[in-house]
Amino acid sequence: MTNSINQSIVADMNLAPEGHLKIDWASAHMPVLNRIREQFEKEKPFQGLKVTISLHLEAKTAYLGKVIKAGGAEVTMTHSNPLSTQDDVCAALVEDGITVFAKHNPPPQEYKELLVKALETKPDLIIDDGGDLVSTLHGERQDLLATVRGGAEETTTGILRLKAMQKEGKLQFPMVAVNDAFCKYLFDNRYGTGQSVFDGINRTTNLVVAGKTVVVCGYGWCGKGVAMRAKGLGAQVVVVEVDAIKAVEAYMDGFSVMPMIEAAKVGDYFITVTGNRDIIRGEHYKVMKDGAILSNAGHFDVEVNKPELDALSVAKRTVRRNIEEYQLHDGRKVYLLAEGRLVNLAAGDGHPAEIMDMTFALQALSLKYVNDRYKEIGRQVMNVPYELDEQVARYKLEALGIGIDSLSAEQKAYLDSWAEH
């Protein structure tokens, strides 16, 4: 339906009460973001500005939108994945005065149209997830570039796209690489992805992980978290990598390491977390066990090659919500979770609130930083300043009631000197 007040496009405004409950629950477990909200309410750093946010539209993201709004911004929110959008949360945001253009699982054309509508509000600042806002602005809607001062990017995939644009001299405004901040990848990518991937897999399949072989494709920070959680659930873990250093690290961490074609023969569960395409493809399907379960935790649904799986199948059916069964020519069956999209969000609720508290605190502070300095930063991808990273960590420790030591003047002098022994 279309909301007559702010022209939002959401599925059903009647779902708003349930959405409010979800947002209230998340915000009660996000003390760092609550503290930043208090600061923003006093300082109003975004007063008179328009901010467009493209993220997975669920409760924790919704609360980030409310915090940015508390800073004085006129906020518009849209999706970054068709299956991760929660319609009740979208409706609740509309009631809270935020413009929303998003629905759960719209047709591809409508998905794109809703994203473009969010950009047609002519934002001053953006928060992106996967680079869809930035690529649309620099591609088919360059007419909307003029007002954009800069923004922040959430994911590895998005930062790879941004750096490619910068290298080609096409990036037209500064973007902060939030994904590369310590308080993002050490906690969100590792502990958040690790837990939420298995939240999505377990609630979807209702099958045991203990005793099974879990193949983790990619051993970056997300892959480390997934492998750690699989081991904790009692699985035998196999890591597939293309980076020799990460492969040695996985081996030293106690995991088996092998090429994908060998891992395909032994895996019961497969989880891709690479940010690249065609990680699992035709040659691998041909040697998989009967009953193998495939899932993806990378941003786009290209890591598990679906066209090649379709081509090798003689029948396909949905056997449970978010589980598609593919019957291969020789009678074997393999199962794909959540259409190969982000399994932790498309088949679950995403990262825990306490984890996203730190990530979204970085987003809020980074957005303020780029707004204050966008002219001097220029057209580049920049890292989150260390002082913002440390500030979020300090707020987190305070919320946990944990104190730490500080260096004495003598200790600082010792570290700063080459002559002292």
UniProtKB/TrEMBL annotation:
Binding-site positions, substrate: 129, 154, 184, 188
Role description: May play a key role in the regulation of the intracellular concentration of adenosylhomocysteine.
Alphabetized PROSITE patterns for the sequence: ADOHCYASE_2
Enzymatic reactions: S-adenosyl-L-homocysteine + H2O = L-homocysteine + adenosine
Class in the EC hierarchy, top level: hydrolase
Residue ranges of domain S-adenosyl-L-homocysteine hydrolase NAD binding in the record: 189-350
Name the record gives this protein: Adenosylhomocysteinase
HAMAP family assigned: AdoHcyase (MF_00563)
Organism in which the protein naturally occurs: Paenibacillus chartarius
Record note on cofactor: Binds 1 NAD(+) per subunit.
